[in-house]
Amino acid sequence: QGMTLRRQMYTAHCKLKISDDGKEVQWIEEGVQNESKEGNRFEREPFVLGTMVRSWRSYWEVCVEEKEDWVLGVALDSVGRKGQLAMSPSKGFWVIRLSNGRSLKALGEKVEVLTDIKPPSKVGIYLDCKEKQVSFYSADGENLSHIYTFTDGPLYEKAPRPIFSPWNNDEKPLRVLSLTHTSCETACPKKAGRETEPSPAAQGIMLKGEGTHPGQDASQSQGTPSGT
Predict the structure, then answer these.
(1) In this protein, which residues make up the domain named B30.2/SPRY (predicted)?
(2) Which CATH number characterizes residue 81's domain?
(3) Domain that holds residue 75
(4) DSSP secondary structure string for all residues of 92-155
(5) Residue 122 falls within a domain, yes or no?
(6) Fewest Cβ atoms nearer than 10 Å: which of 68, 111, 162, 173?
């Protein structure tokens, strides 16, 4: 039960192509790539929402290799999708953006330019609904390197979802690499009190939404609600 973009295709801008496995999204300039009869898609800007099993804490990684422009993060299911988007936590968005291959920004109530941070080729995103935090990491190496944390994150009850944009200036795709649902306190480097932390796979954190740690009985897993 991993993350997929196909279940939320009705939210996708009409020029975003979603792969058959639901893991990849790319901008295609020519023609309409998907059609929605529900009328609830992102109409002007190239975004799509993802779907995952709902959990108090989730971590996923996205490959952005060779991309010069992208937007990644978390959005409420209820965000407006018409016209130009005002992206900030007060509008239901917790996202970072790369522009022109070099300018990395956190789109808070005031845009914060993240200087001295090398744009990653893999981005790790950690959603913690208990602590109301959304954290971003460079996942290029064996260790995670912290990029930015929003400390005014979404409530679980507001149905936060992953949001993706490959932007609209090339056809290179974004690809979801992995997904973790966890109640593990050490899943987040900040909680471990360190700048870097072994990757989720190295920590033995369950991938693909299995719901327990390896060797842990399902009845021992706590704080992970079910749902879609």
Answers:
(1) 1-183
(2) 2.60.120.920
(3) 6-210
(4) TEEEEEEETTTEEEEESSSEEE-TT-PPPSEEEEEEETTTTEEEEEE-SSSB-EEEEEESS---
(5) yes
(6) 111
Provide the CA 58 distance to its chain's centre, in angstroms: 10
Secondary element (H or E) of residue 19: none
Residue 55 to residue 64: CA distance in whole angstroms: 25
Whether residue 57 lies inside any domain: the answer is yes
Number of domains in the chain: 1
Nearest of 189, 188, 186, 179 to residue 211 by alpha carbon? 179
Q: CA torsion, points 68, 102, 100, 164, in degrees to nearest 10? A: 50
Q: What is the structure's pLDDT at 8?
A: 64
d(C-alpha 71, C-alpha 150), whole Å: 15
The residue type at 76: L
d(C-alpha 155, C-alpha 10), whole Å: 24
Residues of the chain with pLDDT under 50: 1, 183-187, 189-228
Alpha-carbon gap, residue 14 to 48, rounded angstroms:
10
Q: Do the domain assignments include residue 217?
A: no
Strand segments (E) across the chain: 16-18, 24-27, 48-49, 57-63, 70-76, 93-99, 103-107, 111-113, 122-128, 133-138, 145-150, 160-165, 174-181
Q: What CA–CA distance (Å, rounded) separates 164 from 13? A: 11
State the residue for tokens 């990644």: 72
